[in-house]
Specification:
305 residues; alpha+beta; Deoxyribonuclease I, Chain A; six-stranded mixed beta sheet
């Protein structure tokens, strides 16, 4: 498990040692099925395929247990083949399963929100054939953002951000990926979280674009606090809105109930303004009536410049 602030030096040392230290979960040896069905794309130029996915934490309580959902999610991810996945709600053992299902081409960076392997992760999975991590860090959405597990704004639980600066091997361009999950029950906490995220991003290299994936727990609508602070303000662009082509719109949270056409998007992918987005999709994959999560993952194909 990677820890906070062991940035580029740790990655370089890992490369020298011939290890893959960017993984936030252990990578099991693929089965013969995994070896044959894992994605086989290479670092060819083209848009970066980004997914934001609230996984719904692993549960053994029926219905919709992780054992029932896992094979559906495995098939979904292998069909979609995103090159960057910002996930929310994943638990350590669940993320190990997903790492194994994605196969050896993928790696991940993350930390439990309560420290180490404890609590939910904001794990970022990435296809190593396309992306190379250069530095990363985590912070908590609180008055003490550098204190692991800190929670000072109310709400149900600690909330955190994981970010990574990547190099795109296909284009040699660099960018930041930022991933989070905002508070569900406290609007003030969401508002303060948006402010802190903007403050931290302002400290990034201004020459590099930013991609922000999240479950915002708030609809993507002008007039609502988080959307106005992040998007209406001009700080970010909503990739669903700027996309040249879009799929059908559904509410991205369904709770394992029938999908809601033209419903609220509470899961968004935001970009630095000006980045071209050739396509956006709300992924409605299910199998034999089983959805892989209580959220629909959202996808964008983003051109870095």
């Amino acid at each position: 498990m990677l820890t906070t602030r062991r940035r580029l030096a740790a990655l370089v040392a890992a490369a020298v040692a011939g290890l893959t230290l960017t993984s936030g979960v252990s990578q099991a040896a693929p089965s013969s099925d995994e070896a044959t069905t894992a994605p086989t794309s290479t670092a060819t130029a083209g848009p970066l395929h980004v997914m934001s996915y609230n996984l719904r934490y692993a549960s053994n309580t029926p219905p919709n247990t992780w054992a029932d959902r896992r094979p559906v999610m495995r098939e979904q991810l292998r069909q979609a083949r995103p090159q960057l996945i910002g996930t929310q709600e994943g638990l350590y053992s669940q993320l190990q399963d997903i790492s194994s299902d994605l196969g050896p081409a993928y790696d991940s960076i993350g930390l439990g929100r309560e420290g180490g392997s404890k609590g939910e992760f904001m794990m970022i999975f990435f296809d190593q054939r396309r992306l190379q991590p250069l530095e990363y860090d985590h912070f908590w959405l609180s008055d003490t953002p550098d204190v692991i597990g800190s929670q000072t704004w109310g709400g149900c639980c600690p909330r955190m951000v994981t970010w990574v600066r990547f190099k795109d091997k296909a284009t040699s361009k660099e960018f930041y990926a930022v991933n989070t999950h905002l508070e569900a029950y406290d609007a003030t906490a969401r508002s303060k979280s948006a402010d802190l995220i903007l403050q931290r991003i302002a400290g990034f290299d201004p020459a590099l674009p930013v991609i922000l994936t999240a479950d915002y727990n708030e609809a993507a609508k002008p007039g609502l606090t988080v959307y106005d602070k992040l998007v209406t303000s001009g700080k970010f662009a909503d990739s669903w809105v700027t996309a040249e082509r879009r799929s059908a719109l559904y509410a991205t949270f369904h709770g394992y109930k029938p999908l809601t056409p033209n419903g609220d998007r509470i899961d968004w992918i935001l970009t630095t303004p000006g980045l071209r987005v050739s396509k956006a999709n709300i992924n409605t994959f299910s199998k034999d009536g089983q959805f892989p999560s209580d959220h629909l993952p959202v996808e964008s194909w983003i051109h870095l410049g």
